[in-house]
Automatic annotation (TrEMBL):
Residue ranges of every copy of the Fe2OG dioxygenase domain listed in the record: 167-276
Organism lineage: Bacteria, Pseudomonadati, Pseudomonadota, Betaproteobacteria, Burkholderiales
Superkingdom of origin: Bacteria
Cofactor(s) this protein requires: L-ascorbate
Residue ranges, annotated region (Disordered): 1-20
InterPro entries: Oxoglu/Fe-dep_dioxygenase_dom, P4HA-like, Pro_4_hyd_alph, Pro_4_hyd_alph_FE2OG_OXY
UniProt KW keywords: Dioxygenase, Iron, Metal-binding, Oxidoreductase, Vitamin C
One GO MF term: L-ascorbic acid binding
Protein name: Prolyl 4-hydroxylase
Record has Iron as a keyword: yes
Length: 280
């Protein structure tokens, strides 16, 4: 209650209670809702003017989200004109064309050269990066400030998404050879998983994902959404966008997705995850 009095956001408090490991996210939210109801009804001795209805949860209030303006089929960002190729409304999945030039795609691929290592996933138990049979690709990272072309694209994506480039993870490249895949998974971090809490503590939730397709693929290698009956094939320079949470920053289970096995050729993508807060 003292934290609420000091003006702490209920969601930040719930996240930090969940992170401490003492409570699940569900229990933390229920406890904060109850504290707010008690305060509203004056039971705790600090009555507010208007009690909120008993069943209403403070966690249903919308929060600021990154967004892409899809009111027309073209988006003008400072250094480029991007095409809107399709929009799925719920969950929001948007395919954008002409996000990167061929030269930019090639420059990023070349920059990463041979620095790839076997891809990992975040272990639920302790948050460690572990090799997993469901993700057989290789990965490489481009740290902030490392390459001019990456900085330029970072700024372009930030303008497209109306979100500070500081509130995002560095580019993560994924390279898939024949048969390699990433089986269906979620990009959001699970507040109820002990291993994900340390990652949530650094930058908050992954609100949205950009998948940048850096090359064409001869066959296979689509990005699939099993619950939506949707498959998007890689095309050099295109970018796929999806929101991982609802407007209240809570994980959306409809966003299950994966990278289908490459049948022939090589697939290279760059992931960019937009976070709630500054990521550094
Ligand atoms: O390979 C893809 O198309 C999707 C990759 C993906 O979902 C991820 O790396 O998190
Ligand atoms: Fe993913």
């Amino acid at each position: 209650m003292d934290n609420l009095e000091r003006g702490c956001s209920p969601l930040d408090m719930a996240n930090s209670m969940a992170r401490s490991g003492q409570h699940s996210m569900t229990v933390a939210r229920a406890a904060i809702d109850e504290a707010l109801r008690l305060r509203a009804s004056g039971v705790d001795g600090s009555a507010l003017a208007a009690p909120s209805p008993a069943a209403e949860s403070v966690f249903s209030a919308p929060r600021e989200m990154p967004f892409i303006d899809v009111s027309s089929n073209r988006i003008v960002v400072p250094d480029r004109e991007v095409e809107v190729l399709f929009v799925l409304k719920k969950p929001q999945v948007i395919l954008l064309g002409n996000v990167l030039s061929d030269e930019e795609c090639d420059a990023i691929v070349e920059h990463c050269g041979a620095r790839y290592t076997r891809s990992t996933v975040t272990a639920e138990a302790d948050g460690a990066s572990v090799v997993h049979e469901g993700r057989t690709s290789e990965m490489a990272f481009i740290q902030r400030g490392e390459a001019e072309v990456a900085e330029r694209i970072d700024r372009r994506l930030a303008a497209l998404a109306h979100w500070s480039h500081e509130c995002s993870e560095p580019f993560q490249l994924q390279k898939y050879g024949k048969t390699q895949e990433y089986r269906p998974h979620y990009d959001w971090l699970d507040p109820d998983s002990a291993g994900h809490r340390s990652h949530l503590a650094r930058g908050g939730q992954r609100l949205a994902t950009f998948v940048l397709y850096l090359c064409d693929v001869d066959q296979g290698g689509g990005t699939v959404f099993p619950n939506l009956g949707l498959e998007v094939f890689p095309k050099k320079g295109n970018a796929l966008w999806f929101l991982n949470t609802d407007s209240n920053h809570q994980p959306d289970p409809q966003t299950l997705h994966g990278g289908a096995p490459v049948v022939s050729g090589t697939k290279i993508i760059a992931n960019k995850w937009l976070r709630q807060e500054r990521y550094g």
